[in-house]
Amino acid sequence: MPDGVALRIIQRMMKNAVEVRDLHVVRGPHTVLEHLDVTIGGGVTGLLGPSGCGKSTLMRCLVGVQRIQGGTVEVFGLPAGSRPLRDRVGYVTQAVSVYKDLTVAENLHFFARVLGAGHDEVDRVVAAVDLGDHRDDVVGRLSGGQQSRASLAVALLDQPDLLVLDEPTVGLDPVLREDLWSLFHRLADAGVAVFVSSHVMDEAERCDRLLLMREGRILADGSPEQIKSAAGVDDVEAAFLALVRRAAA
């Protein structure tokens, strides 16, 4: 087995894919993230909180595109954004990140060339995101949910070990949301560390582990059942509200 392949397998087996220590981010006069300590391991980890609480900023830190004022962010033991991580971390932003005047297949073949991925990967990711019936359709003519899945397909081309998804289900109907969450769990079962953000509390139950965030701070960290039990309530939204009130008191 080549040394590089063996190293990636060993690193996938590490307890934590991501280690964030004392992370501090300031934008203008506002503190966006306040001395966060976060780890991300295997399975599907959800980052839930209201819009503007710092979720996207934290995700940008993980992929190395956010300027930070203090602390460290390591991914598979390397500083976030390091060159060796470029084909190991898949990142899907809230905005569609493919060319709308090209077809799904044309986009994927283009990005496959850029990433050095084999063209057989195109068929694999088209099937993974269930766009087989639309591979020859121009992206700009697809629905919002289909465009989001085309962006996700690009992120899957390199078979990433960490997949960072910034609110991927916003605006999707319940059926598409269900399909995407099923895909996230299939990827996690295959060994990918999936980190997904949302401001929709009913998606919390779909996560293996939850980080509840508000105003740049992590209010709770645990499985959905652990968080509900600690708050003494029956659903995650009620738990979030109880934690907010407890912090204010």
Question: What would you say about this model in short?
Answer:
The chain is an alpha/beta fold and 249 residues long. It has helices at residues 3-12, 55-62, 104-115, 120-128, 144-156, 174-189, 224-231, 236-248, and strands at residues 18-27, 30-40, 44-48, 70-75, 78-79, 89-92, 162-165, 193-198, 209-214, 217-222.
Number of extended strands: 10
- Strand fraction equals 15-25%
Structural class: alpha/beta
Strands of the widest sheet, in order across it, are 6-7-8-3-9-10
- How much helicity do the residues have? 25-40%
Secondary-structure element series: HEEEHEEEHHHEHEEEHH
- Give the radius of gyration: 18 Å
Q: DSSP helix count?
A: 8
Low-confidence stretches: 1-14
Largest sheet: 6 strands, mixed
Distance between the termini: 57 Å
- Estimate the global geometry from the Cα principal axes: globular
Average pLDDT number? 89
Description:
It is a single chain. By secondary structure, the chain is of the alpha/beta class. It is built from eight helices and ten strands. Strand 1 and strand 2 (30-40) form a beta hairpin. Helix 4 (120-128) crosses helix 5 (144-156) and helix 7 (224-231) packs across helix 8 (236-248). It starts with a helix and ends with a helix. The model is unreliable at 1-14 (pLDDT under 50).
